[in-house]
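User: We ran a pulldown and think these components assemble together. Before we commit to crystallization trials, I'd like a predicted model of the whole complex to look at. Sequences follow.
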Amino acid sequence: MAGEALPGSFAVSATDGAARAGLLSTVHGDVPTPAFMPVGTKGTVKGIHPDELRSLGAAIVLGNTYHLHLRPGADVVAELGGLHAFMGWDGAILTDSGGFQVFSLRDTLLAVDDDGVTFASVYDGAPARLTPELAAQIQAQLGSDIAMCLDICPPAGAPRAELAEAVRRTTLWAGRQGAAPRAPGQLLFGIAQGAADRELRHRSIEELVELDLDGYALGGLAVGESRAEMFEATGWAAPLLPAGRPRYFMGIGDPEGILEVISSGVDVFDCVLPTRLGRTGSALTWSGRLNLRNARFARDSRPLDDGCACPACERFSRAYLRHLVNQQELLGHRLLSLHNLHFVLELTAGARAAIEQGKLASFKQEALERLAGPEETACNF
Ligand SMILES: [Zn+2]
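Assistant: Here's a predicted model for the assembly, 381 residues in total across the polymer chains.
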């Protein structure tokens, strides 16, 4: 078809300030950006059928290399046709490198050297090793559309020397991973480190861009620093990334955060928040965050959100959902997860439309005014 993007290509179709709308083309379909990626940690977006993900409007999901490598093992997934076939999802998949889990589960971190990292498995405590070559091999076996480079992600507040060392090793590892074999058509994104240190972040981006990777992520943010610091760093760091390549912010999924990173020029992002909140009985709504355990919903006949077209809102009351949550009924967790995913995907699609119309600033302002209430922002997986 004329104008159809080739797999692996990325085209920006509209800009509004620093924000961009575009199309990321993968072997498993096109991903309109900005795009939210639901997280399928262990090869499943918890409680959600792939057909439901599709009908919610998701074009891409994230799979976790760390977990899939340890259980059931990338060789098992490969034998069964790769991750798409294994999990019954024919849309795009991005796999992380496993590095974030290794470095965020700090109690299990055993040793880091220039060759790789040794850690204790969260499943059985057995020592395991991850190198750039192995991260490439596992992701090739999983057959994801987008593979991520193994990086070193220091915690918030790490001393500058540790940040600098993380930048150095992250570049070293990205170079090695870039030279390793990949699945057919698989893209490789690098991950810039350097926390909120401008000089180090700049250096990290420059070194990775030298490697001419298919896309670039801002790593080492959303790791425990303040929200203000995170948004400020994203604001100046995102425009340092190449304009013609997709930009990925790792680990954001609350409505305010999504609007902030999109405004800064980020194209894709992920978070477990919508499904985690669903499983703990909370809903993201245009009236703010609702904790369905609250007694005030006991006789509330309204849907979670007026006008929401999700499977929860089209048929069920807040009172019924509250009852399900309180009785720990699986349907309650599922319906809340479906609603929350729908909310985040719709918000992202709305932001995309606003960018195309040059109205992102007013869209964002109106959205933030409607979204009253305290926000839980943690996004670890
Ligand atoms: Zn809904």
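The CA atoms of residues 201 and 237 lie 7 Å apart. That may be worth checking against your pulldown data before setting up trials.

User: Thanks, that helps.
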